[in-house]
Write a structure and sequence with these properties.
Layout (H helix, E strand, L loop, with lengths): L1 H11 L23 E7 L3 H10 L12 H9 L2 E6 L19 H9 L3 E3 L9 H15 L2 E3 L5 H4 L3 E5 L2 E5 L5 H10 L2
Parallel strand pairs: 1-2, 2-3, 3-4
Antiparallel strand pairs: 5-6
Helix pairs in contact: 4-5
């Protein structure tokens, strides 16, 4: 599946050496092989947060040990992508149905080896715009790129580009925001 995605990206000219900023493809004559690790939702329910707090000695949340089974795969990829399903918000942890995940998760994501996370999900607005802002701030401070949510309309129009082994890769992330807004206004 991953090979198919990389091949598709190469055919579209977004993940190949020689793709120019104008979108035109100028072949360089040298193929580039990339390994891509992509994971699903990082969705922290309250019992997982409690375990991470215990692993952090009760002073901070350390999620990295919980990722031990996948660390080698994630860390060994040329580019590793994750999906940050819930907002990273300081303060008390909240689980389903409205999530607030500890910002310490961002540091653990970096330690495990993820390079970038998508942030657009049905939970993006669980903590409002301040939750989006704190999520992006936590990821940036940890050195993890992010796409999908933004601090402003102007920032929303920026395409996150990853540079891996001489290849420029556009990283895009979207969600159905209207559904999330409808749920918030109904109090769901």
């Amino acid at each position: 599946m991953i090979q198919l995605l990389v091949t598709l990206a190469a055919l579209l000219g977004i993940a190949t050496p020689g793709a120019t900023s104008t979108g035109r493809f100028e072949p360089s004559g040298r193929p580039v092989r990339l390994t891509v690790a992509a994971s699903g939702d990082l969705l922290v329910h309250t019992p997982v947060a409690r375990r991470a707090l215990a692993l952090g000695g009760g002073r901070r949340y350390d999620f990295a040990p919980l990722f031990a089974p996948v660390r080698r795969v994630i860390g060994g990829a040329d580019v590793a992508l994750c999906h940050m399903e819930t907002p990273l918000v300081p303060g008390p942890v909240q689980g389903y149905p409205v999530f607030h995940t500890p910002p310490d998760l961002a540091r653990s994501v970096k330690r495990v080896g993820w390079d970038a996370c998508s942030t657009a999900s049905n939970h993006s607005l669980d903590a409002g715009q301040s939750g989006i802002d704190s999520t992006l701030r936590a990821l940036r401070r940890a050195g993890v790129k992010a796409t999908g949510t933004s601090r402003s309309g102007r920032a929303r129009r920026t395409i996150e580009m990853l540079h891996v082994r001489g290849v420029r890769i556009a990283f895009l992330s979207y969600t159905a925001v209207s559904t999330a807004r409808r749920c918030r206004t109904r109090g769901a």
